[in-house]
Every structure is written in C-alpha cells, then in structure tokens.
Amino acid sequence: MTSETSAQPARAPSPLEWIRRFLAAPAVGPFLALLLTMAFFSLKSDRFLQGPNLSLVLQQVMVVGVLAIGQTLVILTAGIDLSVGTVMAFGQIVMTKFAIDQGFSPLTAIALGILACVAFGVLNGALVTGVRLPAFIVTLGTLNIAFALTHIVSKDLTYPPGTSGASTLPSQLLFFGRTFTVGHTEITYGVVLMFVLFGLAWFSLTQTAWGRHVYATGDNPEAARLTGIKTWRVLLSVYTVAGLMYGIAAWLLVSRTELGDPNAGQTTENLDSITAVVLGGTSLFGGRGTVIGTLIGAIIVGIFRNGLTLIGVEVIYQYLVTGVLVILAVAVDQLTHRRRL
Amino acid sequence: MSEPQQPILEARGLAKRYGQVVALDGVDFELYPDEIVAVIGDNGAGKSTLIKALSGALQPDEGEIRLDGKRVRFRTPGDARSAGIETVYQDLAVAPSLDIASNIFLGREARRRGPLGLALRMLAKRSMRRDAARHLQELKIGVQSMGQPVENLSGGQRQGVAVARAAKWAERVAIMDEPTAALGVKETRQVIDLILRVRERGLPVILISHDMPHVFELADRIQIMRLGKRVAVVTPQTHTMPEAVAIMTGATRGELEQALIKEGPPAELPEEDA
Ligand SMILES: Nc1ncnc2c1ncn2[C@@H]1O[C@H](COP(=O)(O)OP(=O)(O)OP(=O)(O)O)[C@@H](O)[C@H]1O
Ligand SMILES: [Mg+2]
C-alpha cells in the first residue's frame, strides 16, 4: 500500500526523512505502542508472554475486536456509535432466549439475534442519513432502546436460567468458543473468525470503490456528494454492516461466556471498542484510519486488561486506566488532525 | 426568437431562495458549442448558485434546464456527471485524505478486469494511478507522486487536481468556478492554458472569475450578474472592461442596462477557429 508510482523521479530521501515517513505511516504508531505495552507487562510478569496467556488475551479481544470493526467504519464516516455494547447484548439475549425458550433451531436463533443487531444498525443509519441527526445523539438513543429491550425480553434473567455448571446452550451457539491446537498453543475458532473479519474489512476499505467512498464521505461529505457519490447510501451501508458486526460479536460473546446475560456489554465493550479504534490511529474527525490499526488497538486494550489483572491491579483501577487511555488517544488525534484544509 | 444555433446547455427562469435571500431571481443562461462563457458579478451575485443548479449540486425552486434542447432535471451531481457535465467547484470538492489518483477517479473508480474485478469488485489501483499520472503530465500539472494525499499539496496543485478531474471526465460541458482563485501568476497561466486546451478539444466551458483581464482574454461571451439577476450579456468585442465592471456594479445609468437586457444575447455568435 505504501509503494507509489512516481510521476517524476523523486529525489532520494535522507535517512531522517525515511524515519519521519515510517513514523507517519498508518498503523506504525499503534504498532510501536503495542510493543511498548508488551514490553512493560512482560517485565512486570513472567507469565505474560507465555503461549497460554497470549492465547487468552486474543480470546478476550475477539468480542471487542469485532465490535471495533463496526465502530471503525462508523468513525471513518465521522460518526460515532455509542450503542455497540447494548445492541450486542440485545442480540445475545435474542439468540439464547429463542434457542432455549421458543424452541427455535439453534441456527435460526443465531440468525434472529444477528438480524436484531442488523436492524439496530439500519435504524441508526436511517436516522443519521434520513433525518440527519448527529450520530452521537442517535446512538445514545438506540443505546437506551436496546438496553430496555434487552431487559424486557429477558425479564432480567440469564439464559440458560440457573447458575453455572455445564452450559445447556446448544453447541452451535458455543461454536466460536471451541479451540484447536497448533503445536502447543490452543487457538479459539472465534479468534480465527475475528482475523477473517478484519481481513474482509481491510479488503473492502482499501481495495474497493465502496471503501474509497467511505473515506471520502467521512473526509469531506460535501465533496463526496458533489462528485456524484450517494453519501446517504454509503452511510446507511456503514451502519448496517456495523450492526452485522455487533450481531457476530454477540455470537462470539455467547460462545465465550456460555450464556446470554442481560447485563453484558454495558460499560466495558462500548468504551473499549472506541478506545481500540482511536488507539489504532483512526481519527474521530473521520476520513482517516485503518482497520489494521484498530486490530492493534483492540489487542492493546486486551493486553491492558489482561496485564493489569496479572500484576494484581483491581478491576476498578482498570476502568481508571482505560479511561485515561482513551482520553490520551483522543488528545493525540486532536493534536495531529485538528489542522484541516 | 430565431437563434442561429441551438445551445448545448440552456437555462430559463432559474430561481433559488434561501429564506429571505434570493440567490437566483429568474436567471436565463445559454452556452453554445465551442465557446467559453464567462459569468461575472460581485460577491454574492449568484454565480456559484447558478452553476450549482446547472451541475445538479442544488435544485432550483423554479425554472428549467435544457441539454441539447431537451429538458433535463439533475437531481444529484451524479446525474449531471453522467450527462457529461463536469464541474470544478469554488471550494474544489476534493477529499483531502485521499491521494491524487483516488480524487481524480472519485465516484468513477475503475475495477480490475477478470474475476477479481467482477466478483470481488477489486479496484484497478495501479492502472488508475498510471492513468492519473499521464493525465496530469499531459496537462503539465507538476506533482511528485500520485500516492500523496491531496492535503499535502500546495493550494495551486490542489486546484490543478480539481481542474484535471473535470477536464478528464467532461464530455459535454466543463464548468469552472474561480479555478484560478488561489493561484500564483505562473499557475494561473497554466490553468488558463488548460482551459484553452479543454476548449480546443471541442468542449464548451463556463468560467466564473473575478479576474477581468483573464475573462476578457478567454471569454467569447460574458454574462453579467447582479443581485441574483442576469443584467447583461456582453462580448469582449462590444464592451470594454470598465464598461463591464460598471454594469456589474450597477454604476452606469439605468437606461444603458435596460437597453442591454432587452438586447439580450447577440444574434450573431463570434466565429470560432481555435
Ligand atoms: N446554502 C446557502 N444558504 C443560504 N444562503 C446562501 C447559500 N448559498 C448561497 N447563499 C446566498 O446566495 C447568494 C448568492 O451566493 P453565491 O454563492 O451564488 O454568490 P457568488 O456570486 O458565487 O459569490 P462569490 O463571488 O463570493 O463566490 C449570497 O447572498 C449567499 O449568501
Ligand atoms: Mg461563488
């Protein structure tokens, strides 16, 4: 992606220029931040760098990672989606309740859960494009609607009812929590799915016209419109695909936790998905960013949560740290991107 | 009303209001084959609003637009682009974070041949870059690499990219709203040469500019606007620069203007041999 055909033979850049270019390349900053984070925690804890722990980190990252794909798309269009977590929670309740209570076949239940999330995406997109409301307000509204629906539909119960023990959920709902081994490392199917989805998102954003239109719409919506791009269609597609991602994330969450929990996804996932995107170098102003950066950002967030636990930091302080982290990342974004054309 | 030739693009009675502001007040316009028409007027006279109506960027409240004598309604800028009308907007309408080639092909991306393009809808990035580089070279617009984001370009280069995009895709009409506004002397000259080259290709051009010497150098006819109205259409042969400016600012006696309005467009179009 960085090799360019020059219209004119360019002068050979100085070594300093190479370093500057390297640092300015997308995803390099996030990658260095990732290395620093890993170095820090491996110094603090011997267990951190071991295979099982790293595989656990990825397992913890898969839900937020897939949510963050949707969040990246929305933020690239200069929007923001605050409804991610509760929409996913709703999808997760629909899946588990329909599979257990209503006697739907597991795959139908999964499809219905994903569809519920897609419907929320379409609703977000329709309100943002059709009624031209700010994404912030729209998704704050749908956050509450999804939250209410989750509790109404579940009647505040977890699915399956009762406490722990072997989950009675059908195996299809748990598929992405299963693992296979390569060498001595256990790899979760859900983690593989996450990487595949990141690959697809990367392809769509960088190799197709749709991707160009997403960037253009976020960068300068009026210019995009004037060049004949149907920006409302781009926005609607972005929110719809984002909804699809939240639905898939719901499936992954059920697979990991082996239950449908009405209280899931209310605090950490929302903020973590945004933190992942911003840490990954995507600008909240829209039009700049990469999903590869988001993947790295999601892993950084996962490492923070995992590493802080490993070195014995209480959960409540983890909130504090991630809160500070997102503000720092946004501050960097503000400083680097405030100067616009 | 016997015109010697049918206009390519024609507007009748265009009106556009923004609340209290009447941006266009029943404006007529015509563009004949092979000519450069300049539209001049003070700030806020309605020039940009007029060309936005012609390019589908906004919907007039009243009036009609004809392309080759046939009534058209451009609901979106895309409609006008598909009809072969390309526009350089006053604010350039580029996506700053995208590179030059992406901007030139924005909304017109080329897909790869074969299954990668058909099934995966994959972009033909390499050939678009090559194409864009060749195109800019032909137009003598100097930039280092097609892969640079447009925001890294100088104001003049950015304007060059916007003009090049319009020149590349225009098939019937090229519209340019102050294409030399941010340019230095040399770059202005280049854009002017570019406009002349576009006309040589047989494309009629609508040019909005505040630069009277250039307007008088380039234009075959000059439409003068004031307060949302067309007050006159003159030619460099019939009017001097001070006269045109006087009409534009409304400084001359009312009779002169009235006479000019009644006269309307000249019955005889200047002969073209480029
Ligand atoms: N979107 C809008 N909303 C409200 N008023 C507008 C809008 N667009 C244009 N106007 C008003 O319409 C009038 C004509 O504006 P227009 O941009 O067409 O002028 P112009 O002749 O292009 O001026 P300039 O030489 O400064 O570019 C102005 O009074 C302007 O304030
Ligand atoms: Mg204007």
Question: What are its keywords?
Answer:
heterodimer, A: ABC transporter involved in vitamin B12 uptake, BtuC, globular, disordered N terminus, B: 274 residues, alpha/beta, Rossmann fold, six-stranded mixed β-sheet, four-stranded antiparallel β-sheet, 10 helices, 22% strand, binds adenosine-5'-triphosphate
Describe what this molecule looks like in 3D.
The complex is a heterodimer of chains A (341) and B (274). Chain A has helices at 15-24, 28-44, 51-76, 84-100, 106-129, 135-154, 171-174, 189-207, 209-219, 221-226, 231-257, 268-279, 291-310, 315-337; strands at 179-182, 185-188. Chain A is an all-alpha fold and 341 residues long. In chain A, strands 1-2 form a two-stranded antiparallel sheet. The relative contact order of chain A is 0.19. With 274 residues, chain B is α/β, with parallel strands linked by helices. Chain B has a 6-stranded mixed beta sheet with strand order 6-7-8-3-9-10, sandwiched between helices. In chain B, β1 and β2 (21-31) form a beta hairpin. Chain B is globular and about 60 Å long. The two termini of chain B are 28 Å apart. The complex binds adenosine-5'-triphosphate and magnesium ion. Adenosine-5'-triphosphate is lined by residues 18, 21, 23, 41, 43-49, 90 of chain B.
